[in-house]
Amino acid sequence: MFTYADAMSFLATQLDTVLSGSLEQRVRNAVNSGWNRLHSLATWVYFQRSGVLRVSPGQRTGTASFSASTGIVTLTGSVFPATVTEQHLLIDRTWYPVFRRVSDTQVELFPETRPTLDLTDVAYVLQKVLHPLPAEVSDVLVVYESQQNIRMWRVNPMTAYQIQEGFSWSPALPTQYSIFVDPRSPGRWCLWLPFEVMLATELAYMYQSRRPANTLVREARGTVTVVNGVATFSEPVVTPAFVGAVLRLSASETVPPVGPYGDFAQDPSVAETVVEETLVTAYISATQVRVANVSAAATSVSFCASTHIDVGGGAMLNLFLRLVEDEYGTRPVGNHNEKLVTKSALADAVREAMAADGRAVVNMRDELKYWYGLRLKDIGYVSSGS
After folding, report:
1. Confidence (pTM)
2. Taking the domains of the chain in order of start, what are their residue ranges?
3. CA 343 to centroid of chain Cα atoms
């Protein structure tokens, strides 16, 4: 498996130097930029993933009253859930985001968007309108509603806002959605369902992934013991950034293992054979993580952990390395500077990666006629025409 540290070591070998100080920072910037460019060059099939979003109906029990002077909404006959700040409140035909939960029966609305008049014992709906998606979602490709088994219609945010504010009525189960930035987590997307949800359902979606927000460059301090799918480190070096990293185990207690390009923090030509490597799947504590390979076993050995750069190998890995070289720029050669990669070599790498990413598929529409051999008069009424 290819890692963030491997990418930096690759550049170290290209530059024929050990990385440190500002040079290391420049190389790290090149890796980050190259990784971002890889995801933006095309809609890669390799980076398409799927997910499921569970949607619950809104709360309607009791009535609501609103004080314009305080911005407080008070419920009668029901209580606000602990997650109320993640939801919107529909009163007086308008949806309002909730600022804070005051008590079981009271919430405060945002001053900028609250109603201007008092309301007394009116009907309301409390519902989650914006559904945060995982941080790795770059774009949503398709959404299916499970109960109706229909493909939902994606609309732009302006149309979604018009639907939400009463431009058109929506059925009991969702038929439209939009993508909207998560107001509480900049850089992440929400699935916007702009209508009242009457029935619980599940939305199955496919999305285009992007590089993870958090990266672990390289961690190799201390030793690690791996038993029954849990890795325990001798020092408190673990952070949530370990999730998705490749954990490499060494045969040595003192020399950390390195990848195919050596180690950017020391002479790249020096390599300690990797005994085993596995993905980190969960953060447990500052000294423990869960790993994918439950059969992996080691006792007090050196290790190296670095974020997995999942590029599929082959032509796509070659393209990623060319992008990293291009982002780094030039190096001194003799009495002049020379780019690490030529534009033609980069263009060739793009074409090769896109060709390798293509997959042979069957067009069902064309295949149907061979499966059934039906003519129009076989499946519908045809006038004999007297």
Report:
1. 0.78
2. 63-127, 130-199, 213-307
3. 31
